[in-house]
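From the shared-data thread, chain only:
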Amino acid sequence: MPVRTANAVWEGDLKSGKGHMKFAAFDGPYSFSSRFEEGKGTNPEELLAAAHAGCFSMAFSAGLAKAGFMPKSVRTTAKATLEKVGEGFKVTTMELVTEGNVPGIENAKFQEIAEGAKKGCPVSQALAGVNIKLSATLVH
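Structure, as tokens:
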């Protein structure tokens, strides 16, 4: 399996400094403002949420197909919550909100496969110390 690589540079102190992150599909700035306020640019938590949404959608689609249900689509939004914990900060919660258009499946089976994908996706496993919430809606 390939090893994925990203890099980041931070210049200056926390509040007035600035950073730059780069990987295959992204090359852009981040700052105190983009991380702890609503400033322009990205932040590590947003990228973590994007990774989790993508990983979960793929894992859920794979689980559905393995169970004999061909999904038309799986759409997932992930929300990472960063909170002050003690003297530092921690990603405390990752909320996955997903909708699946899956013909021929009953909701109970849909929910069961969604839970399996939540537990089995590699990014979920990497986030083992984070409370991962899931809301899965079957749409037709």
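The mean pLDDT is 95.
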